[in-house]
Input
Amino acid sequence: MQEEAQEKTLEELLGEIEDIVGQIQQNDISLEASFTLYQQGVEKLKQCNEKIDAVEKKLLLMNQKEQP
Output
């Protein structure tokens, strides 16, 4: 898989995951293709989790700074 020049937003990643799920649910997809799509989906979920964790850490830092 080629690395992308610009990092995708959380919304873009979630949209891609939704597309992958739709493709996997098709009746005419092969086992190999569904497994490849599954792997891509798992990778995108990991990216989503990393983004959410980064935002969560920023919020925690902001909250700590605001505490007297």
